[in-house]
Amino acid sequence: MNNIEHRIRRSAQLFRDRVWPKIVNCPLIGSGQILPVEGVTQIGFAKTLDMLAGIDAWQVRQEDGCMRGIASRVQEWPLDREQQSRYPYHGGTWTIRVTSRLGNDSELQKRLYAITAEGEWLYPAITVQSFLDADLRPICIGVCMTVPLILAANGKYQQNEILKPRNGQGEKFVYVIFDKLKEVYPDGTWIWRSMPLAESGTYELVKE
C-alpha cells in the first residue's frame, strides 16, 4: 500500500468512526448511511474520485431513494507549538488548496470548473472538515454546502475577512474560517465543537 492509499484509508476510517456519529443528525446531513469511497470502489477509481471530483464518501438515504457525494478532510491536531504555529486559526477552518506544487489544477480550480462549467460535472454536495486531538477525539467539525465554500475561497466574501492564505513548499492554501462562513451563509453551515471557543478564537491544545 503506497502513501496515497494509506492516507485515503485512514482518513475514511476516522471519518466513519469518529466524525460521522457527531454530524449524522445535523440539519445539513439529516440521517442516512455513510459509505466511504475506498470501501465500495476499487482503489484506483477511489483515487480518481478523490483527485478529480473531490469525493471521499457517499451519503445514502434508502428511504428517500437518493445519494450524494461528501468531501472530507480529517486533520489530526499536532501538539507541539512549532506545528501549531502553521495554522492561522485554531477555532476551525476549511482548507482549500489554490495552487499545487507541480503546477497541476488545484482543488479550487477543479471545484470552480465543476460548479460553473456547462455539463453538470461531478463535485461533492457537502464538505466536512474535522480536527481530532491526539487521542483521535473530535475537537471541532465544520459541515457546509460546497458551492458557497468554494465561492468564499475564490474571494466572493473577501469583505468579510473570510480568506486566510498560507504559502509553503510551492503550494498555496486558503483557510475559510468556520464562523465567518456561517455569518454570511447561516443556512448552509453547521459547526460542532467539543468545547467553547476562547475569547481569542483559538484552542490551547499544547500539553506543558
Explain what the structure shows.
The strands form two sheets. Strands 1-2-3-5-6-9 form a six-stranded mixed beta sheet, sandwiched between helices. The chain has a single domain (3-193), classed as PvuII Endonuclease, Chain A. The termini are far apart. By secondary structure, it is α+β, with helices and mostly antiparallel strands. It has helices at 3-23, 37-40, 43-53, 81-84, 107-116, 146-153, 178-184, and strands at residues 33-36, 57-61, 66-76, 93-99, 126-132, 138-145, 163-168, 171-177, 189-193. 31% of the residues lie in helices and 29% in strands. The model is unreliable at 159-163 and 203-208 (pLDDT under 50).
Describe the SSE topology.
Blueprint: H1 3-23, E1 33-36, H2 37-40, H3 43-53, E2 57-61, E3 66-76, H4 81-84, E4 93-99, H5 107-116, E5 126-132, E6 138-145, H6 146-153, E7 163-168, E8 171-177, H7 178-184, E9 189-193
Parallel strand pairs: 3-5
Antiparallel strand pairs: 1-2, 2-3, 4-8, 5-6, 6-9, 7-8
Helix pairs in contact: 5-6
| Count of helix runs | 7
Along the chain, the helix and strand elements come as: HEHHEEHEHEEHEEHE
Biggest β-sheet: strands ordered side by side in the sheet:
1-2-3-5-6-9
Rounded mean pLDDT score: 80
How would you briefly describe this protein structure?
The strands form two sheets. A six-stranded mixed sheet has the order 1-2-3-5-6-9, with helices on both faces.
